[in-house]
Amino acid sequence: MQSAQNLLSFVALVGAALLPGCSPAENSTESVEATANAPQKVSTPPEAMTAEGAESGGSATILQLQDGSPTGKSDPIMAIEDAKFSTGITGDFIVANVRYGGGCKDHDFAAYWAGSWMESLPPGTIISLSHDAKGDTCKRIVTETLQINIARLTANERRLWVQLGGGGATSGRVEIVK
């Protein structure tokens, strides 16, 4: 009987060790604050959907391009992948997947444009991403889709390229021809 109890205790310990790096206590004290300018994680609504969003039927964080540069230090981003240009019902977008460590709290992203262009043909520019992990120390690898509205960049430029960078990661160049 004692041997069975020891085996059960061992199995419970191993199971607890294999759970993701989050504890319920980490989530219980998290407060949620909504701000008017905060990006929102939504199942992509039809009026904001890009071609990729329509194909995947998934969810994405929709970001409006802000002026200037990020303030403060960005939390790490492991990779910025599959960056593409897409035209949606409400404008032009760069759609990219970002990978980061976390999984216990919602992370915030913002996109910034400093207003400068590279002296190249076609002209190019860098969009800086800011990542706020909100103190999330969990170890899961999370992939999130960001849709960055770049309509103001494409309004006067019919041919250009954009590169995303931030948190220690960069995307490849995204060629845009309208």
Provide an overview of this structure.
The structure is a single chain. The protein has 178 residues and is α/β, with parallel strands linked by helices. It has 4 helices and 10 strands. Strands 1, 2, 3, 4, 5, 6, 7, 8, 9 and 10 form a 10-stranded mixed β-sheet that branches. Strand 3 and strand 4 (91-102) form a beta hairpin. The longest helix is centred in the first third of the chain and has 17 residues, at 2-18. The model is unreliable at 4-38 and 42-57 (pLDDT under 50).
What characteristics describe this protein?
single chain, 178 residues, alpha/beta, Immunoglobulin-like, ten-stranded mixed sheet, 10 strands, 18% helix
Task: Write a brief structural summary.
With 178 residues, this protein is α/β, with parallel strands linked by helices. Helices cover 18% and strands 42% of the residues.
Query: Which stretches are poorly predicted, pLDDT < 50 over at least 5 residues?
Result: 4-38, 42-57
How large is the count of helical segments? 4
Describe the global form. Answer: globular
β-sheet strand percentage:
35-45%
What is the fold-level CATH name, i.e. the topology? Immunoglobulin-like
Topology:
Blueprint: H1 2-18, H2 24-28, E1 40-43, H3 51-56, E2 59-67, E3 79-88, E4 91-102, E5 108-113, E6 124-132, E7 140-149, H4 151-154, E8 159-166, E9 169-170, E10 174-177
Parallel strand pairs: 2-5, 2-7, 6-8
Antiparallel strand pairs: 1-2, 3-4, 4-7, 5-6, 8-9, 8-10
